[in-house]
Amino acid sequence: MIGNGPVVPPFLQRSSVVVPTIGRPSLDVLLDALAAAPGPRPAELILVDDRPTGEPLRPERPGLPPVRVVRTGGGGPARARNLGWRTARTEWIAFLDDDVVPDADWYQRLEADLADLPADVAGSQGRVRVPLPEDRRPTDWERGTAGLATSSWITADVAYRRAALAAVGGFDERFPRAFREDSDLALRIMDTGARLVRGQRWITHPVRPADRWISVRVQAGNADDVLMRRLHGRHWRDRADAALGRRPRHTAVTAAALAALGFAAARRPRAAALAAAGWLAGTAEFAWARIAPGPRDRAEVTTMLATSALIPPLATWHWLRGVVQHGGVRRWRGLPDLVLFDRDGTLVHDFPYNGDPDWVRPVDGAREALDRLRARGVRVGVVSNQSGVARGLITGEQVEACMARLEELLGPFDTVRVCPHGPDDGCDCRKPAPGMVKAACAELDVDPARCVVIGDIGADVEAAAAAGAAGILVPTPVTRKAEVDAAAHVAGSLTAAVDDVLDGAW
């Protein structure tokens, strides 16, 4: 007998695929593979265009899931991935890099990897193969890329629960490169008590073409290693399965070079010669370690000799730069999931008990501030006391008309909450009560701890605190001094308050 119960959509409809891209030709190969693969499709494919400028991407092709393109304006890989998952509304977010090729059964295996995971599993990593040349030995760059096949928690193919990403603020945008930001995220998620597992889906990660100086440029990652140590302690490498590498030897070789120069300047030729010999021996050993397993053709040997002399001092320089840059760094908090604004006196000039849409007049910078939050994937809403309804001074229809005008002027809001009660009605929604803040968070499935309330009087920040959210006070002439003194966070303007939110200072 066939029942008439609700149709349960495929599990993948509870997931989105996020691909940050800088418009490389490899993106077309990835999209072709996703379009041709059989099996159920995820809810959507979100392409995050991380180019500062350029023609819009045109990813349309038959067979893809619904595609959405969003742009960062060039914020780097961590920011691009954050915008991607914040834009999505599904339970699972699967990240793919734009230079990988999923296997033909990737959709099916992704579904199998995620469908039956227990609640304490926050993420699933795919498996990576890196094809190397069969007709010759791989180059130094090719061998380095091959290490991705055994790396842990790399974003070439990894899926996370959206709630887990929100709980830790997503990727730490202080990691400016596609390096260590994935390990940092994994460690922070595991610090919450969640587990990460490996799935059975596969991707191919071809070796990307690179010029001869690529090994020199990647030494900037030594500064990111310092940030990892600052954030996760001295044993972070053990937890992240990240080998120490040659940095201590690079430091020793650099020290020998500096000593040789110092002794020469001090006219101590014997000491300078000994130090120079130490530098030469260290550099030669490093060069041979890179040349010996490689193809040993003229181009490769020349490149290894030149870069082996440059890498030790550059690695040391970037490490020292990181020590200075990342001193006193704090745990990443990320952006809030939701920012709620008071209306009168905060978003618009306060005309008491206003029921006329023509008098809805935004404060300076309001539209720009809201658009900046929207552009980063932060949802925005309004929580407004409208006691004029209870007092008989305005009607509910007038409040709705003014709210409609507000959206015309300032753009769409993800949630709008209004309290029509008076101060003596005993409701739980009128600020400073937390009802509207809690209801807005519940409507959008946001943890109040990941919400910020911005308002112009003490009742706004008190409502935030009572709901478990953060509050920012933006004083106006009607704000009492006692309210300013009591507020934990005060900003000089609406624009400054949003600046603080986007800087993580909330």
Automatic annotation (TrEMBL):
Gene3D superfamilies: HAD superfamily/HAD-like, Spore Coat Polysaccharide Biosynthesis Protein SpsA, Chain A. One of its GO terms (molecular function) is metal ion binding. Residues 51-75 are annotated as: Disordered. InterPro entries: Glyco_trans_2-like (IPR001173), HAD-like_sf (IPR036412), HAD-SF_hydro_IA (IPR006439), HAD-SF_hydro_IIIA (IPR006549), HAD_sf (IPR023214), Heptose_bisP_phosphatase (IPR004446), Histidinol-phos (IPR006543), Nucleotide-diphossugar_trans (IPR029044). Keywords: Carbohydrate metabolism, Cytoplasm, Hydrolase, Metal-binding. SUPFAM superfamilies: HAD-like (SSF56784), Nucleotide-diphospho-sugar transferases (SSF53448). It holds the Pfam family Glycos_transf_2. Residues 51-61 have a biased composition (Basic and acidic residues). Signal peptide: none annotated. GO terms for cellular component: cytoplasm. It is found in: Cytoplasm. It comes from the Bacteria. Residues 16-130 form the Glycosyltransferase 2-like domain. One of its GO terms (biological process) is carbohydrate metabolic process. The keyword Metal-binding applies. Belongs to the GmhB family. PANTHER family: D-GLYCERO-BETA-D-MANNO-HEPTOSE-1,7-BISPHOSPHATE 7-PHOSPHATASE. This is D,D-heptose 1,7-bisphosphate phosphatase. It comes from Blastococcus tunisiensis.
